[in-house]
Sequence to fold (408 residues):
Amino acid sequence: MSKIDLKGAGFATTAIHAGHSRDPEYGALATPIFQTSTYCFDTVEEGGDVFAGKTSKYTYARTGNPTVRTFEKKIAILEGAEDAIATGSGMGAISSALIGLLKTGDHVVTADTLYGCTDVVMREILPSFGIETTMVDTSDIAKIEAAIKPNTKIIYFEAAANPTMRITDVAAIAELKKKHAGIKIVVDNTFTPPPILCPIQLGADIVVHSVTKYLNGHGDVIGGVVVGTTEDVSLIKSRAVGKMTGAHQSPFNAYLIIRGMKTLDLRVRKHCANAQAMAEFLEKQAYVSAVYYPGLKSNGKDHEVAMKQFKDGLCTGMVSFEFKEGYNGKGAFENAKKLVNSLTLPGIGVSLGDPDSLIQHPASMTHANVTPEGRKEAGITDGLIRFSVGLEDVEDLIKDFENAAKAL
Ligand SMILES: Cc1ncc(COP(=O)(O)O)c(C=O)c1O
Fold:
């Protein structure tokens, strides 16, 4: 048994040890992978008791697995929540949370800027089940409040919006619950994972993550998680993730995620430092008309909210920037393509939060499935580029950008 007591421990210590109970049989340090679909009972009577809910034991991997449970406990502790339920992907987490908490006739207030697939869930899929959605700029509390109706059940947003880096004030939105009882606040914390932001500690009810990104952090897993109270998580588990829709996580993926999370603190701090340096560099480039990064003073209100709610001045490793129309007599999109195609270190790809830098063009990639009107509303122009700043030496990334800019 582990002797570790994490009471009062710092974030890095907690990220390494939380959720683990040392393997009692062999003392294995790493969490074993329980690669099994089913679990056996000693007797029919024992099986009957477990299925009747009289005793608790794993039964079948769609409804629970010890490796996956270790990850769930770890992320719940790091987010300061009661419980968590792991899913096969970030979209699995988002759709499970929504299916678990909503029913026909309900209404959701959500952001006008969201990850492309979440945008489709909000604009098309929920309405097709008779759930109404209203999309507003969630960085403006007055607009959220004006959109609330008697049947509003959820306010949903990304703490830092993908890809425009618009920052939403979690504590200010949580204040709205005092006037509008029964509304749950659901935050996609993918871009700003702990130690940057713990939305539940600021009054949110549920956090969802694409674990694919910073939490796993190595570009080799697709995964998701929903974090919240025991009551909400068990509702989501029973109505969506576990038995009914089977959006559960595989034990091998959970093993890789647990391994990745042991270095979460180190990685996130370096991603943020590199991103800050890249944002400051990009802001000085003649071909750039705007840099969206909450660590920059030029980002006004987004910067103010970030400094208030993010820990230790950490922001995110994500930087978006806009190309100047007409630079060297060329269009913004033409120059954006030229620069991105000339870079050598960042891969042209849609994921993020990996050690390897990744760069992409939201209008034709991550947000291609958003309608042109939706992209316009969200501020996703053809000249906008999203850069997931990796863990390389930032001097090398800057050199790469300087060389690539010669093509413009
Ligand atoms: C903010 C955000 N939320 C959710 C998702 C979906 O996650 P996944 O790809 O793990 O399903 C993404 C994917 O890029 C994302 O950027």
Notes: The first strand starts at residue 83 and ends at 87.
